[in-house]
Amino acid sequence: MPILTLQNISKRYGAVQALAGVSFEVPAGSVFGILGPNGSGKTTLLGIVTDVLKADTGHFTLFDKTPTARERRKIGTLLETPNFYHYLSGYKNLEISAAVKQRGKDDIARVLDICGLTQRQHSAFKTYSLGMKQRLAIAAVLLGDPEVLILDEPTNGLDPAGIAEVRDLVRRLAGTGKTIILASHLLDEVEKVCTHVAILRKGNLLLSGAVNEVISRNDYIEIAAADNHALRLALLQYPGCTNAELNGGLLKVMFAAQPDAAAINNYCAQQGIWLSHLQLRKKSLETAFLEITNTPVQ
Amino acid sequence: MKQIIYTEWLKVKNYRTFWAMLLLALIIIPAGNFMVADKFTENLQQLSKLVGNPFSFPDVWLTMASINSYISALFGLLLIILVTNEYTYRTNRQNIIDGWERKHFVYAKLFWLVLLALLTLVVATISAALVGVIYGNKPVSFEGYEYMLYYFLQLVVMLTIALLIGVLVKRAGLAIVLFVAYNMMLDQLLTFLLKRYIGAAGGLLPLQSGDELLPFPLVGKMVTTSDHYDTYVYILAMLCYIILGIFLVFRKILKSDL
């Protein structure tokens, strides 16, 4: 059963087309990254899913049902900014979250502990630092241990230690089989955890699906020899080699398929080139992402 | 609904501004009632021999309702603050995200509207009854209590206007300015102009409809104005404004982006 199915969602703000006919599906148990540069429509999309924004056209389902508040109560959501009553303490704010979610108060202590706010739980929200506010928002998401989480830029405002903690948390939650929808423009945030992605640019869905299927991230090799120019010419003759470019003292060589380091080593030796460096590398999601988002929309 | 009221209670339970304003708004009623009763009894004893004691039953209900209709704006401000706070803190979004239907948000604020109006009616009733007992010279009677109900209706109209302004304007400062301007001046000004150029219909503006039913006690008795509709017309007008206002609030919250 898909957790979320979007069909042809469009939304316009005046002259700006925030979303243009976006459709995709979030399978249960996936960690689904919604990627895109700032202003690409990520938050608008999640705003529509959580009913704070109205789509102009299209429709969507949650848990295969027409979405109502009942479905939203099963989802922990952090959308855009932490929204809390400034005059109330962290604890009292979570009491309100729990009441709206129709869950008991007994989970509050646990989520405060996970987010490292136990010490400051009785201080007013307005006295919190940006990072603490974000932590409280994450605590509210975790309240009641929901099966589905929607996290929109969850590491906003956090310090490096906080960012690492949140990543670790997402990874742990994903490990327990929860479905996580993660919107971010920080690719390394998504890189290690996402099983699926949807990439948006200016409101258009560029692609979506399982990470390995939709983003070609073939390995490439970094290679070097005494004469890198000769090496480059030799490798361009190598079957399956698509490109070889000199990058500093190293040659970066791409292949149409998965390269075999031993075979390349052997090939170079046969050409009389002795390698001083040979390393197999994975193309980063960032590189793949930039390649995709820099292609003009058809 | 119980869940909604409980959530609203959690929102205000530790909110000092709310309690301070509520207390002030409620104290103003008996304070105003007693002040007027005291001053009047002291200074105008001669006049009261002519026109009767406005603080005796049954006249005290009209007298107090009429006075109260001038000093109830604080409840509107209180409601505006409760509404615009949600927009300031963006908790109106968070409540929906976390599991309210949009209509629940409207119910929550209508709950405050009804509660504030009822609370005011209770306090105003007790206060007027006490004035009647202390400053009047006739036995307690509920004859003429309908004026208190007109006051209640006018209060609901005023709170509906406050709610509507809060929902449409979203920002506390501007909403308060607009509300106060309408409440203290615009409604009267428009009434004055309409009455002058059109006639009795000028008395059918939202707040004026209530005022028409709550004439200032002594003056109202002496001056019989011909351009005046029957009571039910004003009541109907007020009910229409309440329904229209609440309809617009629902429409705004249900249809627009939050």
Describe this structure in words.
Chain A: Residues 4-227 form the ABC transporter domain. Chain A: Belongs to the ABC transporter superfamily. Chain A: Pfam families: ABC_tran. Chain A: This is ATP-binding cassette domain-containing protein. The complex is a heterodimer of chains A (298) and B (258). Chain A is α/β, with parallel strands linked by helices and 298 residues long. Chain A is built from 11 helices and 13 strands. In chain A, the strands form 3 sheets. A 6-stranded mixed sheet of chain A has the order 5-6-7-3-8-9, sandwiched between helices. Chain A has a 4-stranded antiparallel sheet with strand order 11-12-10-13, covered by helices on one side. In chain A, strand 6 (148-152), helix 6 and strand 7 form a beta-alpha-beta unit. Chain A is elongated. The two termini of chain A are 32 Å apart. The mean pLDDT of chain A is 88. Chain B has 258 residues and is mainly alpha-helical. Chain B has one domain. Chain B is built from 12 helices and no strands. The longest helix of chain B has 34 residues, at 102-135. The radius of gyration of chain B is 20 Å and the shape is globular.
Name the features:
heterodimer, A: 298 residues, alpha/beta, Rossmann fold, Alpha-Beta Plaits, 3 domains, 6-stranded mixed sheet, 4-stranded antiparallel sheet, 11 helices, 33% helix, B: 258 residues, mainly alpha, 12 helices, globular
Radius of gyration from the alpha-carbon trace of chain A, in angstroms = 23 Å
Counted by DSSP, the helix tally of chain A is 11
Gyration radius of chain B (Cα, Å) is 20 Å
Question: What value does the average pLDDT of chain A take?
Answer: 88
Q: Specify the overall morphology of chain B.
A: globular
Helical content band of chain A: 25-40%
Portion of residues in beta strands of chain B equals under 5%
Q: Helix share of residues of chain B?
A: over 70%
The CATH class of the largest domain in chain A is identified as: Alpha Beta
Structural class of chain A: alpha/beta
Quaternary structure of the protein = heterodimer
What is the overall number of helices of chain B?
12
> Could you spell the SSE succession of chain B in H and E letters?
HHHHHHHHHHHH
What proportion strand of chain A?
A: 25-35%
Order of helices and strands of chain A: EEEHEHEHHHEHEHEEHEHEEHEH
Structural class call of chain B reads: mainly alpha
